[in-house]
Design goal:
The complex is a heterodimer. Chain A is α+β, with helices and mostly antiparallel strands. Chain A has a single domain, classed as 2-Layer Sandwich (Alpha-Beta Plaits), CATH 3.30.70.20. Chain A is built from ten helices and 13 strands. In chain A, the strands form five sheets. In chain A, strands 8-1-10-9 form a four-stranded mixed beta sheet. Chain A has a three-stranded antiparallel beta sheet with strand order 11-12-13. The longest helix of chain A has 17 residues. Chain A is globular. The relative contact order of chain A is 0.18. Chain B is an alpha/beta fold. Among the domains of chain B are: 168 residues, 3-Layer(aba) Sandwich (Dimethylsulfoxide Reductase, domain 2); 131 residues, no CATH class; 132 residues, Rossmann fold; 139 residues, Barwin-like endoglucanases. Chain B is 22% helix and 16% strand. Chain B has a six-stranded mixed beta sheet. In chain B, strand 2, helix 3 and strand 3 form a beta-alpha-beta unit. In chain B, helix 4 runs antiparallel to helix 7 and helix 4 runs parallel beside helix 10. Chain B starts with 12 loop residues before the first strand and ends with a strand. Classes of the chains: A alpha+beta, B alpha/beta. Chains A and B meet through helix 1, strand 2 and strand 3 of A and helix 2, helix 3, helix 20 and strand 31 of B.
């Protein structure tokens, strides 16, 4: 297996959102079509969160520091492609899996049964679901492009070279060199992210103004529940969902990565977003996992 | 750009001032980052902390419209601290030239000598050089004007060269350098800070960092755009930054230059092709009734007494041959009289155009890819004026605000009789042809898809129009038939209008056998050559494959980089003559030794010139028998000027030296001289301007564009992925102003002045902050101007309704970048 990685260097990023747009274009993801559908976000950041149609976005975080200078932190929010992905571990249908050739967490969305375990398991709140029968949507690492010897669409479009793609060890070396340079220039909070977090990520980041400003959770942890879900994986989605709800899932919430917590209503057989009360999916108990897959 | 995008990688220091290069020219970020990797430093000076500022090493705030104070302070700093590249300035500029002893500047009135209050104009006679000797034009066989005696060249008297008196020591009190030095003594650090609003420590850091490029081996580049130009003294802003570059020896070198960033709006192509009222294609003058009543007067006025523009009539006459073909002969002055002449009393630049509509002088309006109901300054007035038109034709890709001006929220459609036609145009990817980028690279673009529906290319629309008009003239006659019926229009291949034919016409060819010309050096003033745009000559010159752009220089895709400086000599074609860095003679000293051996563009090896770039000077001469003789180095580094030196001072334009004046609507008084605005400001007398006072409208505002959208948004506001990335209009205001006015992030606020009003979403941000200006607090806000009512996804109020319709006297650019408003919570 090749151990490759995407490198995002926020100190080179101009926040042009070329990657955000290229991701949508390459993957054929829709944007709202209604008049004034977007509304004012109160920020250069739009949309504010990843959603079923948005796999990558550039986040903006500004503040005036103690010296009176301005720290405008840009960050790239998308799948981190964990070396040991919790989402793939809990996925009962094989939808989310590690691409052997690249190490990226690839998506076979035709297999998705819509159980949304991945959404609750992910330490970064990345997977989102969409469609009439919601199926998972998240960054695929552009394995379709990588297979053809091309770099991911976001990397390809980046003008300042903030995004890079290659051997993970090489990306880490570049990141460390960059952080050393930034520190020598007085950016004391500059840090590499993705080397050891969660046994390593296939997205390595240089956070110019530190983790908080980039919305990256320090020392992210996979909740023990993932082990439980791993055991439960052969069972039906309903059973596992019930366990999820019963254990009252509450994973960490980062500044940037806002996750949604799901609840499985055992009586109505609905998957409910606990923040909004929205019924995300109704599960037909008569259809078993195998048939649906 | 004197240089080009890839060359940014060679800079030691960047100064982004009057542009937001990573947002509005994203490609720049690629090359800037390469330079930063090599240890370069990047300074951003901007009213707002932009995305460019976020990427830079040093950010310095500035009050919009005070660039000349900022640069004037830098001149003073350079001179006082001995940071000038003296050998460069003394030899390659007019620093040593002696100026008329009657030249003066009066600080109390803020006027240079020669002001005529009645005419509201300067007589520039006292701004010129003292003459050492007058040398008559050399028409001998080896002289600069030998060509004037050839058969078929219209008769005219070439100019004499008034050689200026000079003092090479730069000590004479009347030499340009001393005049310059005295003029900017007032621009000390504290005064500059007081006017511009930054703190002294930051200003000194900026000056110190940038002026270090005065060291001969160092290069500094200035990236500017509309932030610099859209002021009523925009030309002088640009001159000011040019002077900084000359003082520091940064023009003509790799990694240096005067770099106007041009992009998708095609300012580069528009200026090359003379989309300016007083210009003729190729940076020549359009004939006016008063100044150029005949070809002879044009030639006698416009031909330079020395330097390369001694050849200018060759370019102009070759262009006339292309306009009128066989009908242009030596006997009829090549059809000069058929060219429409600009009258002396009618100003038809963008701002007065609407005054003329308002008074009924202009009855019809044809718009090509332009959206002035949205983009004109005081756009509300522009729309009211449009409502008096009989007809309007818009050629565009969407129904713009102009195409639907009668639907504007402030107009009553029932009361408007204007007949509006919208012709659907093909998009850039639906047509093939020539494009030119900011670095003057001409590239061939292929068609990706067929035009949608009934959309047509601009060229096809032109062709249909030409055929219809000429057909009507032939059948029925009409006013002024000669120019129309004598015009040449043969740009067809296989019976269809074709951009390749146009490319050949732009490139130039011999009229006898239609052989494409490799250089404008082959153009003649006797009618034997035809060339629509002399500066492009050579870009499409392969006679072996005239129909295949891929085999022309414009289709060049070679990736070799001779010299390793990113010149990529075989990729596309940079006009003029594939020269990548213009004024490159100035990259070496008077002996021809490069200032920096690692950035060699040209070098004299003792016998001949070694070159990585195409020399921008006379590097050799060719005798009649074809013998080439190298020309040893001299000081003629700027041979497009008759002096063959660059000008620190100019005896023309609206000011001989850039002087600070306040924006037309300013939050403060001018403390550098006794005059508030430039005396040469245009259109301020128009009633429609409705000037606002700082008492009524205390907030300074600047307008700008975002990376997510483009211009009036007619394309981008109809593109879902871009609308999603920046879905709604906003105004950026400081936390301090928000606190003062009780505004919270996301609130709806009204921004208004005498001309208009716009309701916007408030972005409360720390990236803007109040400035201390002349002892008082000035609040500055910023508004992107992309939005309007037209479009199907994201709409908003028209911010250009607020901008004053006053302009610059040289190029008539409006003052979009600095004016006054007030703001209130809705």
């Amino acid at each position: 297996m090749t151990d490759s990685a995407i490198l995002y260097d926020s100190s080179r990023c101009s926040a042009c959102k070329g990657c955000q747009s290229a991701c949508k274009c390459w993957n054929g993801l829709p944007s709202p079509l209604g008049k004034e559908a977007g509304g004012c976000t109160g920020s250069y950041q739009s949309p504010l969160e990843l959603n079923g149609d948005t796999r990558l976005l550039i986040s903006f975080n500004e503040k005036r520091n103690e010296k009176g200078g301005i720290e405008w932190a840009f960050a790239r929010r998308s799948c981190m492609h964990c070396v040991n992905p919790a989402c793939a571990a809990v996925c009962p249908s094989g939808t989310l899996h590690v691409d052997e050739a690249s190490g990226m967490v690839a998506v076979s969305d035709e297999k998705c049964i819509g159980c949304q375990y991945c959404a609750s398991a992910c330490p970064f709140g990345v997977p989102h679901h969409y469609g009439p029968e919601p199926t998972v949507n998240k960054c695929t690492g552009c394995v379709d492009r990588i297979e053809q010897g091309r770099v991911p669409a976001c990397v390809k479009t980046c003008q300042p070279g903030a995004l890079n793609f290659g051997d993970r060890a090489e990306m880490l070396a570049i990141a460390h060199e960059r952080v050393a340079l930034l520190k020598s220039k007085g950016f004391d909070k500059a840090v590499v992210y993705g080397e050891d977090e969660l046994d390593g990520l296939h997205v390595v980041s240089v956070a110019k103004y530190g983790l908080d400003a980039a919305g990256l959770p320090e020392n992210p942890q996979v909740n023990d529940i993932v082990d439980w879900l791993g055991i439960m994986k052969p069972l039906t989605g309903i059973g596992a969902g019930a366990i999820l709800a019963g254990l009252g899932l509450s994973f960490l919430t980062g500044v940037g990565y806002k996750r949604h917590t799901l609840h499985y209503d055992e009586v109505a057989h609905d998957v409910v977003d606990m923040d909004t009360g929205e019924v995300l999916q109704h599960i037909d108990v008569d259809i078993d996992v195998e048939r649906k897959a | 750009m004197t240089n080009h995008w890839c060359d940014l990688q060679n800079a030691d220091v960047f100064l982004t001032c009057g542009s937001n290069n990573v947002e509005n020219h994203p490609i720049s970020s690629k090359w800037v980052q390469k330079a930063l990797d090599k240890g370069a430093t990047w300074i951003v000076v901007d009213p707002r902390y932009t995305r460019s500022a976020a990427c830079a090493d040093i950010y310095c705030p500035i009050r919009a419209g005070t660039d000349i104070a900022f640069y004037g302070g830098m001149f003073n700093y350079i001179v006082k601290n001995g940071l000038m590249q003296k050998e460069y300035v003394a030899n390659y500029t007019n620093a040593s030239y002696l100026i008329d002893p009657d030249f003066s500047f009066d600080v109390n009135t803020g006027l240079f000598s020669g002001w005529d209050e009645g005419k509201k104009a300067y007589a520039t006679t006292t701004w010129g050089y003292q003459t050492a000797e007058v040398v008559g034009p050399d028409t001998s066989a080896t002289g600069a004007f030998s060509w004037t005696t050839a058969d078929g060249v219209p008769e005219f008297t070439p100019p004499s060269n008034k050689v200026a008196k000079k003092d090479p020591t730069l000590e004479d009190p009347q030499c340009v350098f001393q005049v310059f030095k005295r003029h900017y003594e007032r621009y000390d650090l504290d005064t500059v800070c007081s006017i511009c609003g930054m703190d002294r420590e930051t200003l000194e850091l900026v000056y110190k960092t940038y002026c270090a490029t005065g060291s001969p081996e160092k290069s500094g580049t200035i990236m500017y755009a509309l932030g610099q130009t859209q002021h009523h003294y925009g030309t002088q802003n640009t001159r000011a930054l040019t002077l900084v570059q000359l003082l520091l020896g940064n023009v003509g070198v790799a990694g240096g230059g005067v770099n106007a960033l041009r992009g998708e709006p095609n300012v580069q192509g528009a200026t090359d092709l003379a989309m300016l009222v007083y210009d003729f294609p190729g940076y020549m003058k359009w004939p006016t009734v008063q100044k150029y009543p005949s070809l002879r007067t044009w030639m006698e006025t416009e031909t330079a007494s020395d330097g390369y523009y001694t050849n200018k009539p060759k370019f102009f006459i070759s262009a006339l041959k292309e306009w009128f073909g066989e009908n242009a002969t030596s006997e009829n002055d090549f059809g000069y009289d058929w060219l429409p002449k600009i009258g002396s009393n009618t100003d038809l630049s963008i701002i007065p155009t609407f005054e003329h509509m308002d008074t009924g002088l202009i009855k019809g309006y044809w718009l090509w890819g332009q959206n002035p109901a949205h983009s004109a300054p005081n756009a509300k007035f522009a729309r009211q004026a449009m409502s008096k038109l009989d007809w309007m034709v818009c050629v565009d890709i969407t129904e713009t605000e102009t195409a639907s001006f009668w639907k504007a929220p402030d107009l009553d459609p029932a009361a408007i009789g204007t007949e509006v036609y919208l012709l659907p145009a093909a998009l850039i990817y639906e047509k093939f042809g020539t494009v030119v980028n900011s670095g003057r690279w001409l590239q061939w673009r292929n068609k990706a898809v067929e035009p949608f529906g009934q959309c047509k290319t601009d060229l096809e629309i032109c062709d249909l129009l030409w055929k219809e008009i000429v057909g009507l003239y032939k059948a029925e006659g009409g006013a002024n038939p000669d120019p129309i019926l004598n015009m040449k229009w043969d740009y067809h291949i296989d019976g269809k209008i074709d951009a390749r034919s146009v490319a050949m016409a732009l490139n130039g060819y011999t009229t006898a056998d239609k052989k494409l010309l490799g250089t404008f050096g082959d153009l003649k003033a006797d009618g034997s050559t035809s060339c629509a745009l002399w500066i492009y000559a050579g870009f499409y010159a392969n006679n072996d494959a005239p129909l295949d752009p891929a085999q022309q220089r414009i289709g060049g895709r070679g990736t070799e980089d001779k010299g390793g400086l990113g010149l990529y000599q075989d990729w596309a074609y940079a006009w003029p003559l594939n020269r990548r860095i213009v004024y490159n003679r100035a990259s070496a000293d008077t002996e021809g030794r490069p200032w920096n051996a690692n950035r060699m563009l040209v070098a004299w090896d003792g016998e001949k010139w070694d070159t990585n770039d195409v020399p921008d000077f006379v590097a050799s001469t060719k005798a009649g028998d074809g013998t080439v003789t190298p020309v040893p180095p001299n000081n003629k580094a700027y041979f497009m000027n008759w002096e063959q030196n660059a000008r620190l001072m100019v005896p023309s334009l609206d000011m001989p030296l850039p002087e600070h004046y306040e924006p037309f609507e300013s939050p403060t008084e001018n403390i550098l001289n006794g005059r508030q605005n430039s005396p040469c400001i245009k259109f301020a007398e128009h009633k429609s301007v409705q000037r606002g006072s700082k008492e009524d409208y205390p907030i300074a505002v600047t307008t700008y564009t975002l990376v997510e959208h483009w211009q009036s948004g007619s394309q981008t506001r109809n593109t879902p992925v871009l609308v999603e990335a920046m879905p709604a209009q906003f105004v950026e205001i400081s936390e301090e102003l928000a606190e003062e006015r009780g505004i919270k992030n996301g609130d709806r606020v009204r921004v208004f002045n005498n001309r208009g009003s716009a309701v916007l979403n408030a972005f409360v941000t720390c990236r803007l902050r109040p400035l201390a200006v002349n002892g008082k607090t000035v609040h500055q806000i910023g508004i992107p101007h992309h939005w309007g009512w037209a479009g199907s996804l994201s709409t908003g109020d028209l911010v250009n309704d607020l901008a004053p319709n006053v302009g610059d006297p040289n190029c008539f650019v409006p003052e979009y970048k600095a004016f006054l408003v007030d703001i209130e919570k809705v």
